[in-house]
Specification:
Elements: H1 2-34, H2 38-68, H3 73-78, H4 81-115, H5 121-149
Helix pairs in contact: 1-2, 1-5, 2-4, 4-5
Bound molecules: protoporphyrin IX containing FE.
The site of protoporphyrin IX containing FE has 22 residues, from α1, α2, α4 and α5.
Length: about 150
């Protein structure tokens, strides 16, 4: 019971750190970057990257442990929880793929544009769209997580 609770706590903490950090970047730092502080944003986003990916790893690993605590497979499937879990898993995969595109393709593109003194607007625009998409998915993922934990 206590171990399960600690793992669930880490799961939720990881989600808060990932989504909270992204929310702050997308809605506070990014608008400032588009008004001229792109260098500051690029630096902050680069520093935030290891934190975000540690949180993502934590959420996914603890998520798999949570699955083992849901009870017998037959009951999970019959109750419909299996379907909700599958939907959540697909959305998590999509969110992680988009976050990877942002952090490992668009952020380096932004850094290259800044180093070459080119206009960073296109890279910032792509990051803004990816952030919105990940945040939208995260809102649904959190709802599905709550639905799963309260289904039994
Ligand atoms: C592969 C990835 C993931 C898996 C397999 C997974 C699995 C689970 C499972 C099985 C539960 C129910 C736990 C229980 O009731 O004992 C749960 C709860 C939850 N998950 Fe996930 N999860 C994953 C990723 C995520 C992500 C990325 C987020 C948020 C961005 C998230 C947010 C939540 C929340 C908010 C809960 C409800 C906690 C509560 O009981 O109050 N999960 N997850």
């Amino acid at each position: 019971m206590t171990f399960h609770l600690v793992v669930l706590w880490l799961h939720v903490l990881g989600a808060i750190v990932w989504v909270g950090g992204l929310m702050y970047q997308a809605h506070v730092l990014l608008p400032a970057a588009r008004r001229g502080s792109a260098g500051l944003f690029a630096d902050a986003a680069r520093r935030g990257r290891p934190i975000a990916w540690t949180a993502i790893a934590l959420v996914v690993l603890t998520g798999f442990y949570n699955v083992t605590r849901l009870g017998p497979v037959e009951r999970v499937m019959e109750s419909g929880t299996g379907l909700v879990l599958a939907a959540k898993f697909i959305l998590v995969l999509a969110a992680v793929a988009l976050a990877g595109q942002r952090d490992f393709a668009q952020l380096p593109r932004l850094a290259r544009a800044l180093a070459a003194r080119e206009d960073p607007a296109r890279a910032l625009g792509a990051i803004a769209w990816l952030d919105r998409a990940v945040l939208l998915l995260a809102v649904v993922i959190v709802y599905l997580g709550l639905a799963i934990s309260r289904a039994g």
